[in-house]
Amino acid sequence: MEKLKRTKISDLLKETDKDKVVNVKGWVRTKRGNKNVTFIALNDGSIIHNIQIVVEAGNIDEQILKLINTGACLSVTGTLVESFGKGQGVEIQAKEIEVYGQADPETYPLQKKGHTLEFLREIAHLRPRTNTFGAVLRIRHAMAYAIHKYFNDNGFYYLHTPIITGSDAEGAGAMFRVTTLDMDNPPRTENGQINYEEDFFGKSTNLTVSGQLEGELGALALSLIYTFGPTFRAENSNTPRHLAEFWMIEPEMAFYDITDNMDLAEDFLKYLVNYALDNCIDDLQFLNKMYDTTLIERLKGIVETKFVRLSYTEGVDILMKSGVKFEYPVKWGCDLQAEHERYLVEKHFKKPVILTDYPKEIKAFYMKLNDDGKTVRAMDVLFPNIGEIIGGSQREENFETLSKRIEELNIPTKDMWWYLETRKFGTAPHSGFGLGFERLILFVTGMLNIRDVIPFPRTPKNAEF
Ligand code: ATP
Ligand code: MN
Fold first, then answer.
1. What is the total count of domains within the chain?
2. Which atom of ligand 1 is nearest to 390's Cα?
């Protein structure tokens, strides 16, 4: 007999042509039954739903049935029939079962249901096999695809910016060093410092904290570009919203001012949330039921709501007049904390907020200075449950103003000459922003901890899997 090709469960559940013989492969979620009949719920990760395998006594060897426990991997051939069980259209009457891999019920960590997310973090190598992580990972995939689709459909080019960078002035936080020097016995200069001239690249290098500076070079040639890659920050911030390794999407647009930038950010986020509602509804319904019954409502709310736009100064005014006692007191000039951002979004406006025109002291050197000389054309998009989801700005395109700012901040220009040359040769007004991919996934899935929306989280003291 010709070998039957595997059909994905996602396709089987849509199948209308009954009574045909099919092959399905997957992992056992549950097995139950009596001496006459055994029911196996099989999942292959193609969809959140399982397919039910019905094994009538005598059809399959007893010895094989004994090997089948939760977690085992099977290949099942049988007849696809209509199911009389509640909530499932079809099931498979097994004719033949091959056990690819057993899972010992005594030691398989996912033998029982209902583990805490904290426990699942300790078994990151197995947690993709749970319903929750299956849902999160499928949504994560759909969002990555939608991001590329959105930009492609809107005339943006995907630019691959480097992961190893020679500049330590990207301006977004502490960096991880990249070196091939012998750490026990590094070469030294005459005055005793480590001599990075002898390192792999002939200079000191780090993992990138942002692709923006190189993204600007692309925008000043191709007009509309975006990056989508991993970024690394060696901050010791153990919060539910920070990872040491995360993915960032950074569009950069020539000829866009800050208003164009805000319009793009709002349209982009609404597109992504809408894409999830249109394409991931099974997974969203599962998460809505199990974790957060307001999730789908909140997602729909975003698509339909016009984001509030106001200045940092107005935002600080509202916070100071709120009478709320924040952990970090607010005054003009202070950096806003998640508690402040979330007050504006969740309590005051009950809508996403785009905050603009921050004091220059708390923002990066490359942001365009306003005429007041005090504030810069920054724009942060603040979301319910998340706080800052996007950080962006119009960039300073004037060579003199930018050079002066770099000097004021004592940023070493020897590593930045190439960036400054864009302002010397054919400079143009331009803008861009960075969307933290995992913050987006947090919002779309309703999960509360960023460690639960990336397959293998990197956080302080944690790089096991
Ligand atoms: P925050 O103030 O929340 O620490 P940031 O101002 O340092 O963020 P940016 O440098 O503006 O962040 O980066 C752009 C976006 O990248 C942020 O809006 C956020 O969505 C995301 N992001 C920043 N840091 C992290 C991190 N450590 N882990 C995950 N996402 C992050
Ligand atoms: Mn920011």
1. 2
2. 18
